[in-house]
Write a structure and sequence with these properties.
The structure holds two protein chains of two kinds. Chain A is mainly α. Chain A is 74% helix and 0% strand. Chain A has four helices and no strands. In chain A, α3 packs antiparallel against α4. The longest helix of chain A has 22 residues. The radius of gyration of chain A is 19 Å and the shape is flat. Chain A starts with a helix and ends with a helix. The mean pLDDT of chain A is 96. By secondary structure, chain B is mainly alpha-helical. Chain B has two domains: 169 residues, no CATH class; 48 residues. Chain B is 80% helix and 0% strand. The longest helix of chain B has 42 residues. The radius of gyration of chain B is 19 Å and the shape is globular. In chain B, 51% of the residues are buried. The chains are: A mainly alpha, B mainly alpha.
Chain lengths: 97, 242
């Protein structure tokens, strides 16, 4: 039964992922559609970051938020992304001590 | 092709692959602790190591795997679990469409299929923000390295968690939950610094996500935030070009 669930989960995840790869060069998009698709990464990042970041630590939304603010500051000063990640982890670690 | 140019082209492909691993490293850093946590939870809820590793290899979508494990533990029905997975992962359709449109001319159908099958929020974000590489020779090796290193670290972490149990102290693994959010921020901020209106697109998407999640499940809310937030880019990015 678990095996069937896994196969089902895999199929419904795989099919939406792969359809654009198969069909994308069958269409020529209008200019505005291209701009729409170009904006998707930034919109996706926004939607993925917030409000999800508030639930990093259960029942303590401010801790995730502070971790995020530290990441913004470190990234703003041009730190390598690995250091941004480590700085943010360290912030949350210290705040949960 | 002469022997020498063949070798040169191989070297270049390898160079692009190495670059991809470098750029994809933060994903590995974020994935391993989360995958271990997944493995631990899945094992605790009674899944065998083979099943939980297989799920990582075949599904390769973190949030839906956590949800799946929870629902299996709560003995939810298979159809219910599979529909919930579809809803939660449908955002990858939008992301894949956006990215495949960038590599439509530079990556073959075979390459695109491989990249699409291993597309996650994180591999998409890192690839899309390095899309300048799509115009270079051997671009597919660059993007494949990002996806493959993420894929393998996810599977390896899941297996490790299932096998060894809680090998990371709880407080540390809890803190590492912020890693992928920090990576998303670290990807977004340099773009916003260069072009402030990109930040506007992201903030609108955040607000739509918050608003939509009052009415629909979090999976659909992220899809709506991404699609409608991206739609504002039609106007916002237009002004930039003039």
């Amino acid at each position: 039964m678990i095996f069937l669930i896994i196969i089902g989960m895999a199929l419904v995840t795989m099919i939406p992922r792969v359809i654009p790869a198969l069909l994308v060069n069958k269409f020529l998009f209008k200019d505005w559609v291209n701009r729409w698709l170009q904006a998707i990464p930034y919109a996706a990042l926004g939607a993925l970051i917030f409000p999800g970041i508030l639930s990093v630590i259960e029942d303590a939304p401010h801790i995730g938020l502070l971790g995020g603010i530290v990441a913004i500051v470190l990234a703003y000063f041009g730190l390598n992304i690995v250091l941004v990640v480590i700085g943010s982890i360290a912030t949350v670690f210290l705040l949960t001590m | 092709m002469t022997q020498a140019t063949k070798q040169e082209s191989k070297d270049h492909a390898f160079h692009m692959f190495q670059k991809g691993i470098q750029v994809g490293f933060p994903i590995m850093l974020g994935y391993i602790p989360i995958a271990i946590t997944y493995g631990v939870l899945a094992a605790q809820s009674g899944m065998s190591i083979i099943d939980l590793t297989l799920m990582s290899a075949l599904v390769f979508a973190g949030a839906s795997q956590f949800m799946g494990v929870n629902m299996i533990a709560a003995s939810a029905g298979a159809v219910e679990i599979i529909i919930a997975t579809f809803v939660l992962n449908f955002r990858h359709f939008v992301m894949s469409l956006s990215f495949m449109n960038e590599v439509r001319d530079s990556v073959s159908l075979k390459g695109r299929t491989g990249l699409a099958l291993t597309l996650t929020d994180e591999t998409f974000a890192v690839s899309a923000l390095n899309k300048d590489k799509a115009k270079q020779k051997n671009a597919v090796f660059f993007f494949l390295a990002i996806n493959l290193s993420a894929y393998l670290s996810w599977i390896f972490g899941s297996f490790l968690g299932g096998l060894l149990g809680e090998i990371i102290p709880e407080q540390l693994s809890q803190s590492m939950g912020v890693a992928l959010y920090a990576m998303f921020i670290g990807l977004l901020v340099p773009s916003v610094k260069k072009e402030l209106r990109i930040g506007l697109i992201a903030i609108i998407a955040m607000l739509i996500n918050v608003l939509a999640s009052q009415f629909v499940s979090s999976g659909w809310a992220i899809v709506l935030g991404t699609v409608l937030g991206g739609l504002t880019g039609v106007f916002i990015l237009k002004e930039k070009k003039q």
